[in-house]
Amino acid sequence: MQSKLIFPELSHVGLGVIDKLNDEVKKLGGSKILVVTEKNLVDIGICSQALQSLDSASAIEIYTDVVPEPPLHIAEKLLGYIRREKFDLIIGVGGGSALDLAKLGAVLAQNEGEVKDYLNLTGTKQVQHKGLPKIMIPTTAGTGSEVTDIAVLSLEGTKDVVTHPYLISDVAIVDPVLTMSVPPKITAATGIDALTHAIEAYISVNSSAVTDGIAEKAIELIGASLERAFNNGSDEEAREQMSTASYMAGLAFYNAGVGGVHALAYPLGNRFKLPHGESNAVLLPYVMNYIQEGCKEKLANVYLKLTQDVSVNKNEELSTSCVQTLFHLNKKLKIPTDLKEYGIEQRHLEMLTDDAMKQKRLLARSPVKLEWKDIFNIYSAAYEGKMS
């Protein structure tokens, strides 16, 4: 099988690599720098911790108009600001929303038009120029945004993306020290987000031997460390393993793609403002249960990698064990296991199904074709909290 693989130009991964930031800024020639981050990261000192190696040779401005699941107007505002103030380097510090906005602003700053002109579903323009140099620094272990070419935005009734290879970071700096103070709730949601990326990449119709190997290792690391990081945020080894796993899952899903879980999760985030990681988490067991006939062997391997269970009965249906493990993992991490817990009502399920059907780019990667009725059935099972 032939496969085309794309990876970031340069990544630093591991404890203490944040000290590399100043060297990388010098290499990229940044003299007027915009740091796109979240206000709470400024307030609790994580942003200053990330930037502490920078010397005084560059002018640095902090931009905090970032919200979870960012709507289009937030991206348009940032783009206008970057163009108006003529920054020459963009640094993203934070979770997926901050990194997505930073990547998007950096690239489109040197392309014509507005953000809406480049949306996947409705845009009419193609990215022509690489844009400003950009460095992405994640402060959670989950989104993988630092290694992908996708920026996700919320629209009326759905989500859409801007995607182009130019959105990949020039430099990714993944230092688990920046995740040590992440609270348990966010550790859980972002951790399952990373797990979802790895699993969906693994079962994607676009997977390859290379992406499978990366995804398998990410799943193994998450199985070994997520509960530990959730229960003890100061567990340095667990945090390092989760940051590495998140990075690897990002590489896997960037090259192989994600599928049905994300397609169904997007409407939950858009309509009901569920955090993206939680949207993925609550749906992951139900989608995997529904499609397991199309990927039994791989789900069996997910179970083995995730649990390291060496005592399994070879006659046992391991794909079903995988689904059950994912369901119980949510419980252990105190993530809701049905849609009712989020205030979603049965009358909303048709609307959610209509919205999910718009995500054709994602649905096309599922190993089992998902039509309207299939998606409705998955939402219904997730609503009832029952594996059908």
UniProtKB/TrEMBL annotation:
Keywords: NAD, Oxidoreductase
Coiled coil: none
Keyword Lipid biosynthesis recorded: no
Annotated Fe-containing alcohol dehydrogenase-like C-terminal domain residues: 187-383
Family indicated by similarity: Belongs to the iron-containing alcohol dehydrogenase family.
Gene3D superfamilies per UniProt: 3.40.50.1970, Dehydroquinate synthase-like - alpha domain (1.20.1090.10)
Lineage: Bacteria, Bacillati, Bacillota, Bacilli, Bacillales
InterPro entries assigned to the protein according to its UniProt record, in alphabetical order: ADH_Fe/GldA (IPR001670), ADH_Fe_C (IPR056798), ADH_Fe_CS (IPR018211), Alcohol_dehydrogenase_Fe (IPR039697)
Pfam families linked to this entry: ADH_Fe_C, Fe-ADH
Sequence ranges assigned to domain Alcohol dehydrogenase iron-type/glycerol dehydrogenase GldA in this UniProt record: 12-176
Protein name from the UniProt record: Iron-containing alcohol dehydrogenase
Annotated PANTHER family: ALCOHOL DEHYDROGENASE (PTHR11496), ALCOHOL DEHYDROGENASE 4 (PTHR11496:SF102)
PROSITE patterns, sorted: ADH_IRON_1
